[in-house]
Specification:
The complex is a heterotrimer. The longest helix of chain A has 28 residues. Chain A has 25 helices and 21 strands. The radius of gyration of chain A is 34 Å and the shape is flat. In chain A, helix 1 packs antiparallel against helix 2, helix 2 packs antiparallel against helix 3 and helix 15 packs antiparallel against helix 16. By secondary structure, chain A is α+β, with helices and mostly antiparallel strands. Chain A has 5 domains: 147 residues, Four Helix Bundle (Hemerythrin (Met), subunit A) (Up-down Bundle), CATH 1.20.120.160; 174 residues, no CATH class; 49 residues; 180 residues, 2-Layer Sandwich (Heat Shock Protein 90); 146 residues, OB fold (Dihydrolipoamide Acetyltransferase, E2P) (Beta Barrel). Chain C contains 5 helices and 4 strands. Chain C has a 4-stranded mixed β-sheet. The longest helix of chain C is centred in the middle third of the chain and has 16 residues. The chains are: A alpha+beta, B mainly beta, C alpha/beta. At the A-B interface, strand 20 of A face strand 4, strand 5 and helix 3 of B.
Chain lengths: 744, 158, 116
C-alpha cells in the first residue's frame, strides 16, 4: 500500500462515518434519540478527527474537534438536543464532508470554505464550551496549527500508558513514517520516554535502506482513551505488532509483553525500566520468578514495591479493568475479522479472469463433445459445474444491497420537503435486494432526479392534499425487488399523478409531437424523457429546467436497463427502473445472421419459432403468433450485413437447409421478433465493452468472445427496437402500427 | 544539447512508407481474419480478438483518404496504444508490410509540406528522408484520436 | 536528494559530509553507492549540519553508518548536526547517538586542528 492508497482508505472510512452520522441524525430528527445513537455520532466524528490528525489534515481536525466537543456535551447531558442543534449538526456534517474532499492547502486557499467554517463554528457557539471555539478559531486562522490546543489540558492526572511498537518492516516503503505516529502521540499527551531499539539491524550486506529496523518502546502520559491511542496506528495495524498497555495494566501484562517481544528479556526489562513503566525492583522480582502470567499478576497485587509508578496498578480492581479493556478491545476488533476491504479494481480483475475461465471452459466443453470420449465429457461436465459455481461466487462478491443507496435519500427527502414546505413520508422496501456495485454507483443520479421530481411535481402541496381529502403527509416509496432476470427499482408517490393533458399540450407546444398524434398513455408518459421537456408550471430550482429526465433515461439505458412509467390521475405515479443483475457476465442466446455472431440477452427472450412456418401479414414484417400481431426485424437488414467470405464458401452447402428463425423478445411491455439465420443455443458470456469509438452504434451493447475465439456482438434489445422504428420512419414505410405496440 | 533522436517503426501501405513513434506501438501480429462490425464506416475494418481483448482495427489507408487496403497473405496488424485521451486506447492498424525500426534525429525531420500533400497536414508529424525515400511520420494522436473516430462513426450512422 | 562527500584525510581520518534531503527516496541509493563499500580510517568525522530534511529511513541510514564505522574499529564523532536531525533526535530521544557520545570526547581537540 502506498501512502495514496492509505489516504484512500481514510477517505473511504471517513465517508462511511459521515454516512453513519447522517443516518443517526435522521433518526434523531424523527424523534428517536437514545444514548447509543449519540455515542455513535460522537464516535464517528471522533474517528474522523483522529485519522485526519495522523495525516496532518489540520483543517478537518480543527473543525471536527468543536463538533466533537458539542456532541460530547450532549452525550454528557450538559446541553439538550433540539431541532436547532440537529440542524446545525447536519450542516456541520456536510461541511466535514467538504473538508474531507480538500487538502489542507486547498482549504487555506478557499475563502468560501473558511467562511463556512467560521459561520458554523459561530453557529455551534451556543452549545460549545467557549474556550473551545476560541481556541479553534484561532488555530484555523493561524497558518500553523498547534495540536496542543486540541486536547483538554488538565495535565494533573498521571496516566502513564506504555506503547510497544514493532511496526511492519514495510511501513516506510508504504509511505508511513513512524515520525508521523510519534508526532501524533505528542498531540495526545506527553511522551515521557521513547526508546528506539536498534537491535534488529542486519549485517552490512543485508541492510535494506527502505526496511524499518527500528522498534520502539514508548511511555506516554495521556488522558486519551485506549481507542484514541489505538487509532493512531490504525493504518499500520496489518503486519505490525502493536501493544498498548493502559495505565491500569498489571505487572503480568508487562511480563507477557516482554515474553512476546523478540528482544532479549533482561534487555527489554531494562528498557521498560528506563521508560519508567516499571521499577527495577518489580522487574527483578518478576523476572526472577519462573511463573505464569497469572501468578505474577497475583503477586503484583499482593506485592508492595516502593514508590513505583506501577503503584496505582496495585489495586485489585486494576486487573479486572485490564481484562475488561482487553475484552473490549477484542470486541471492537471482531467485526474486522469478518470483513475485509478490497480495492474494487482487484475484484474487477478477478471477475475478468473468471470470465476468461468461463470462455475457456466452454471451449473445452466443445472439444470434449467432439472427442466423444464419455469419461472426458463427464469430467468436463463436473468442471462446468464448478466453473459456474466459481463464477456465481465471484459475482456475488460484487453485489451490494441497495439499502445504502436508498438510505441516502432519507436526507434528500428531509431537506427537499423542508424546502418545498411539503410533508413527506419516505417508505423504503427491499433494502436488502442486491445488485452489482457498478450499477449502484451509477444509479445515484437518476434516482435523485426521479425522487426530486416526484416530490416537486408529483406530490401536491399540503393545501391541495387537504382539499382532495388525502392524508396531509405525502407518501414516497422506494422499493427494490427481483423480477425474472432483472432487478426492479420502483419509485412511487401518492400524489396527483401525471397530468396527461398538460404533457400533451406541452409536447405540442414544444413541437415534439403533432397536434393530431395518437399516443398511448405509455408513449405520452415517455415524452417527459424528451430532452428539454418540463411540465411544472413554475420551474423550481429543485427539479431544474427539464434537463434531468432525459439524462435519467440515458443513464438507465447505459446500464442496459429500461424505465417504465405508470400513473393514475389523483392517485399517484410510479417509475419503474428495470436493470440486469450484473453487467459483467450475461446469460445469452447465441444466434447467427449472415455469418456474424450475435448474442441476445436471455432475460429478454420469450421463445424461438421457425419463421418459415409463418406468413408475413400484408407483406410487412409482421406475423400472426397465436392471434397476436408480432412485428419483427431482420438482423441482416437492420445491420446491413453482407455474407462474409467464409460464409459464401459454405453457402452452397447450407443453402437448402437454411431456415429462418425468429427469436421473440420482450422488453417492458413491448414484444417483437428478431429474424436470424441460425440458432446456436444458450451461452454464458463475458461482456467486453466495445470501446469509445463504437459509442454511437445503436443496438449493440458490447462484444463477447465465443469458445472458438470468434467475436460475437451482444444485442441491446431496446436500442435495437428503437433503431428499427427509426429506420421504419426514415424509410417512410406506411405502417400505421408502430413496431412497439404489437397488440393494437 | 545533443540532437534528439527518436525511434520510429516504419511500414508500408500501397507502396507508401509511413513511420510511427515506436513508443506508441505495442506489437505486430499476423492478419488472421477480422470480425466486421455492422454499419461501420469503411475506415473501421472491424474488431479482432487479441488474447481476450476485443480490439478495433483501422484501415489507415481509408483514414488517410486513399483506397481501402487490399488484404493479402502478408498483411499485418500493428497494435498501437494511445494514452493521450482520458482512457488509454488500444487499436490495430492494417499495413501491407512492416519494415524496420529506425532512429531519426529531430533535425532530419522536415515539416509536412503545406502544399500538395495528399494527407491532411494535421495528421503528419513530419517527413523524413531515408535512403532517398520519403517516410511520412504520422501523428497517431491526431490521426487515430478515439474521440475523433467516434465522431466519424456517429456521423456515418446518422 | 542527499549529497554525500567522503574525504580521506592525511591525518588518518575520514570525513563524511551529508547535505540536502536524506529521506527514503534516496536512502537506498546512498547506501549502495557510498556506504556498502565504505572504508574509513582510524577516526571518522560526520558532518550532518547541512541535512535539510530527514525521515526515519534517513536516520536508520545514519545509525547503520555509525555501525559500519564502529565495526571497522574507527572512532567517530559528529561534528555538526543541523536543525532537521536535531528535531528528529529530540523527538525520538536519540541524542545518545548524535550528541552525547561518552567515549569519544578525547578526539575533539584533534578534530578542530584537522579542520583548519
Amino acid at each position: 500500500m502506498s501512502l495514496d492508497a492509505i489516504l484512500q482508505t481514510f477517505f473511504v472510512e471517513a465517508q462511511e462515518h459521515l454516512e453513519s452520522m447522517e443516518n443517526m441524525l435522521l433518526k434523531m430528527d424523527e424523534g428517536e434519540c437514545d444514548d447509543e445513537m449519540l455515542n455513535d455520532i460522537f464516535r464517528s466524528a471522533h474517528t474522523i478527527k483522529g485519522s485526519a490528525g495522523i495525516f496532518g489534515l489540520d483543517h478537518i481536525v480543527n473543525f471536527t474537534h468543536v463538533v466533537e466537543n458539542v456532541l460530547d456535551r450532549a452525550r454528557d447531558k450538559e446541553i439538550e438536543i433540539d431541532t436547532d442543534l440537529i440542524n446545525v449538526i447536519f450542516k456541520c456534517r456536510d461541511h466535514m464532508q467538504s473538508l474531507v474532499g480538500v487538502t489542507l492547502d486547498e482549504f487555506n486557499a478557499q475563502a468560501d470554505l473558511q467562511k463556512i467554517d467560521n459561520d458554523l463554528l459561530t453557529a455551534l457557539a451556543p452549545w460549545a464550551s467557549t474556550e473551545n471555539i476560541e481556541a479553534v478559531k484561532q488555530t484555523s486562522t493561524a497558518t500553523e496549527s498547534q495540536p496542543e490546543n486540541k486536547l483538554t489540558d488538565d495535565g494533573g492526572t498521571d496516566k502513564l500508558w506504555h506503547i510497544s511498537l514493532r511496526l511492519s518492516t514495510d511501513c516506510l516503503k508504504n509511505g508511513m513514517d513512524p515520525l508521523s505516529f510519534i508526532k501524533f502521540l505528542t498531540s495526545l499527551g506527553e511522551i515521557k520516554h521513547i526508546e528506539t531499539i536498534i537491535d534488529n539491524f542486519p549485517s552490512l550486506d543485508n541492510f535494506d535502506a527502505e526496511t524499518l529496523y527500528f522498534a520502539y518502546e514508548i511511555a506516554l502520559q495521556s488522558d486519551a482513551s485506549l481507542e484514541e491511542i489505538e487509532n493512531t496506528f490504525m493504518f499500520v495495524q496489518d503486519d505490525s505488532d502493536i501493544t498498548i498497555l493502559p495505565p491500569s495494566a498489571t505487572i503480568g501484562d508487562y511480563l507477557a509483553l516482554i515474553d512476546k517481544l523478540p528482544e532479549e528479556n533482561q534487555r527489554l526489562g531494562d528498557i521498560l525500566v528506563k521508560c519508567g513503566s516499571l521499577t527495577r525492583h518489580t522487574l527483578e522480582q518478576a523476572l526472577a520468578s519462573p511463573s505464569t502470567e497469572k501468578t505474577v499478576s497475583e503477586q503484583a497485587v499482593t506485592d508492595q514495591p516502593d514508590e513505583s509508578p506501577a503503584e496505582e496498578r496495585k489495586d485489585p480492581n486494576a486487573t479486572i479493568n485490564a481484562a475488561l479493556t482487553k475484552q473490549k478491545q477484542a470486541k471492537s476488533q471482531a467485526p474486522e475479522g469478518k470483513q475485509i476491504r478490497i480495492d474494487s479494481s482487484r475484484l474487477d480483475h478477478l471477475i475478468n479472469l473468471i470470465g476468461e475461465l468461463v470462455i475457456n471452459q466452454q471451449r473445452i466443453e466443445l472439444l470434449s463433445k467432439d472427442s466423444k470420449n464419455p469419461q472426458l465429457i463427464e469430467a468436463v461436465d463436473d468442471f462446468d459445474n464448478f466453473t459456474n459455481q466459481i463464477r456465481d461466487a465471484a459475482l456475488s462478491l460484487r453485489m451490494v444491497p441497495i439499502g445504502g443507496t436508498f438510505q441516502r435519500f432519507k436526507r434528500l427527502v428531509r431537506d427537499t420537503s423542508q424546502e418545498l414546505g411539503k410533508e413527506v413520508e419516505l417508505i423504503i422496501d427491499g433494502a436488502d435486494t442486491e445488485l452489482d456495485r457498478l450499477m449502484v454507483e451509477k444509479l445515484g443520479d437518476p434516482l435523485t432526479h426521479i425522487v426530486r421530481n416526484a416530490m416537486d411535481h408529483g406530490l401536491e402541496s399540503t393545501e391541495d392534499r387537504q382539499a382532495a381529502g388525502k392524508n396531509i403527509k405525502g407518501q414516497l416509496k422506494l422499493s427494490a425487488y427481483h423480477e425474472g432476470g432483472h432487478i426492479v427499482i420502483a419509485i412511487s408517490d401518492d400524489g396527483n399523478g401525471i397530468n396527461k393533458v398538460r404533457i400533451r399540450e406541452k409536447a405540442i407546444e414544444k413541437g415534439i409531437i403533432n397536434n393530431d398524434s395518437q399516443l398511448s398513455d405509455n408513449e405520452l408518459f415517455h415524452l417527459i424523457f424528451h430532452p428539454g421537456f418540463s411540465t411544472a408550471e413554475t420551474v423550481t430550482n429543485l427539479s431544474g429546467r427539464g434537463v434531468g429526465m432525459d439524462v435519467v433515461k440515458r443513464n438507465v439505458e447505459a446500464l442496459q436497463g429500461s424505465i417504465d412509467i405508470s400513473s393514475q390521475t389523483g392517485l399517484g405515479s410510479e417509475f419503474k427502473i428495470r436493470l440486469p443483475l450484473t453487467l459483467a457476465i450475461i446469460d445469452g442466446f447465441h444466434v447467427e445472421a449472415k455469418g456474424t455472431h450475435f448474442i441476445i440477452p436471455q432475460a429478454t427472450i420469450i421463445e424461438c419459432i421457425d419463421l418459415s412456418n409463418h406468413q408475413d401479414i400484408k407483406g410487412r414484417h409482421c406475423i400472426n403468433l397465436r392471434g397476436d400481431m408480432i412485428p419483427y426485424l431482420n438482423m441482416s437488414e437492420i445491420f446491413n450485413l453482407a455474407p462474409s467470405q467464409k460464409m459464401k464458401a459454405a453457402d452452397h452447402m447450407t443453402r437448402h437447409t437454411a431456415k429462418r428463425e425468429l427469436v421473440i423478445v420482450q422488453f417492458g411491455s413491448d414484444v417483437a421478433g428478431i429474424a436470424v439465420d441460425r440458432l446456436n443455443g444458450e451461452i454464458q458470456t463475458v461482456v467486453k465493452p466495445l470501446g469509445p469509438i463504437f459509442k454511437a452504434l445503436k443496438g449493440i451493447g458490447g462484444s463477447s468472445l465465443l469458445g472458438n475465439g470468434e467475436i460475437a456482438f451482444i444485442l441491446d434489445v431496446p436500442q435495437l427496437i428503437e433503431l428499427a422504428i427509426a429506420n421504419e420512419i426514415a424509410n417512410k414505410v406506411s405502417c400505421p402500427e408502430s413496431i412497439n405496440s404489437p397488440d393494437k | 544539447m545533443v540532437d534528439k533522436t527518436s525511434q520510429f517503426l516504419t511500414f508500408t501501405i500501397a507502396d507508401e512508407h509511413f513511420g510511427m513513434d515506436l513508443h506508441q506501438t505495442r506489437e505486430i501480429i499476423e492478419y488472421a481474419g477480422i470480425t466486421q462490425v455492422p454499419l461501420m464506416p469503411q475506415f473501421i475494418s472491424g474488431v479482432i480478438n487479441l488474447r481476450g481483448e476485443v480490439v478495433p482495427v483501422i484501415d489507415l489507408s481509408v483514414r488517410l483518404g486513399r483506397q481501402p487496403i487490399t488484404i493479402h497473405k502478408r498483411t499485418c496488424v500493428i497494435v498501437i496504444e494511445l494514452h493521450s485521451s482520458e482512457q488509454h486506447c488500444v487499436l490495430g492498424l492494417l499495413a501491407d508490410a512492416v519494415n524496420e525500426v529506425i532512429d531519426i534525429s529531430a533535425s532530419d525531420i522536415e515539416d509536412a509540406p503545406a502544399f500538395g500533400a495528399k494527407i491532411r497536414a494535421e495528421f503528419i508529424q513530419g517527413i523524413a528522408k531515408k535512403d532517398d525515400e520519403f517516410i511520412v511520420l504520422l501523428d497517431a494522436e491526431k490521426t487515430l484520436s478515439p474521440v475523433e473516430l467516434a465522431h466519424l462513426v456517429e456521423a456515418e450512422l446518422q | 536528494m542527499a549529497e554525500i562527500k567522503i574525504t580521506q584525510k592525511q591525518n588518518n581520518s575520514t570525513e563524511i559530509t551529508i547535505s540536502g534531503e536524506l529521506t527514503i527516496y534516496c536512502a537506498m541509493d546512498a547506501y549502495q553507492q557510498h556506504f556498502q563499500q565504505l572504508k574509513v580510517k582510524e577516526i571518522t568525522l560526520f558532518q550532518f549540519g547541512n541535512i535539510s530534511e530527514i525521515d526515519t529511513a534517513g536516520v536508520q541510514l545514519l545509525i547503520m553508518l555509525m555501525k559500519i564505522v564502529s565495526e571497522q574499529k574507527s572512532s567517530y564523532q559528529v561534528t555538526s548536526l543541523g536543525e532537521a536531525l536535531t528535531d528528529y533526535s529530540n523527538l525520538f530521544q536519540l541524542n545518545r547517538y548524535f550528541i552525547d557520545f561518552e567515549d569519544l570526547t578525547e578526539l575533539t581537540s584533534d578534530n578542530e586542528e584537522d579542520k583548519q
